[in-house]
Amino acid sequence: MPDQSHLYEALKHVVGYIYPNDIEAHWSILIVLYPYLTGLVAGAFILASLERVFNVREVRPTYRLALLTALAFMLIAPLPLLSHLAKPLRFWEILVTPHLTSAMAMFGFVYMWYLMVVLLLEIWFDYRRDFVVWSRESKGFKKYFYSVLTLGVTDISEKAIRFDEAAVKTITIIGIPSAFLLHGYVGFIFGSIKANPWWSSVLMPVIFLFSAIVSGIALVMLIYLLSNKIRRVKQNMECLDTLARYLMYVFIIDFALEGLDVIQRTYTAEESFDIIYALVHGHLFETHIIFQLILGTLIPIALIGWIQLKHVPANVRVSIYAVCGVLTLIGIFFMRWNVVIGGQLFSKSLRGFTTYKVGLVGWEGGLMALGQAMLPILILAFLIKFLPPWQEHPTSDRAH
Fold this sequence. Notes:
Low-confidence stretches: 393-400
Structural class: mainly alpha
Mean pLDDT: 85
Number of domains: 2
Strand content: under 5%
Radius of gyration: 23 Å
Order of helices and strands: HEHHHHHHHHHHHHEH
Shape: globular
């Protein structure tokens, strides 16, 4: 007889009447991490587009950093899904046996398009002149490394540079709807599951998208602020103030959309309203009300709004921006948690609850999720080491 001890353990936490298939949460913390990472990718890229497409010059110092951040997190984004699969080595079948009616199968194609065509091409065109100059100035491994990255294109004439800049702008314009598609489809998957009233909402893709932009801006702002501190460079307050303002604007839109969803659910008061109300005020009270709503949303909006109304010294603003960045990232993570895990805590009977506990070890444990969350930071440190985003172009190249 197969071991069913895990089922008996899950049944200890059941409250009310639930169907047998609803005993356990089938999607774990790794499925929480997956939309969180893809949201950071989309948000960072949207931030980069502010300078290239919308000519917001104040955020220019973060343009390259935003691109490298998007690339670092993009490389790791599929890893939580692969770890969650029972047979992760079969992931390649999603590409060679396309299933065009599957929303999940779309991710493979959107991912390859976004990584290979959008991100890598934009970074290459933006850095190409630097690659040429660095290959001429460097020695040893770096000289060979940068020479390979030039792909044999060593023309850095004024005409060639203009072509690079035009290519970057074109790719960025294409990349904006690609970023929307990359993360919006995650919300589409949840919103299209009609059998689950917690997920079934036409606003779900839009909420996911705006929360992604919020998290991406907060992440890049925090990395930029900390990197300046580490390099002992004076903080560019004009850049930080602009980033904070855009963070607040998008945050308000995101908060309004989530509020609209709550108002609509409350007004319609369908048969699922009672179980959702009990879910929010019971099992998800800490993660939804405290971590997501108060700490992760209202406090950052209030702090940044206060800065807009008062004359606050630069050093105090920097500290507040750092706190807001951390709180925002925590709040968006718990937003993903509340959607993914929260939707699995009540039964389709609408009469019972269970609980979900994160294990420490294992393929879907907390340590695995933490390790995968830290990997993009290590990759970003490597990218910054070899592709420094702080200087627009090498000094020695100005003569060309």
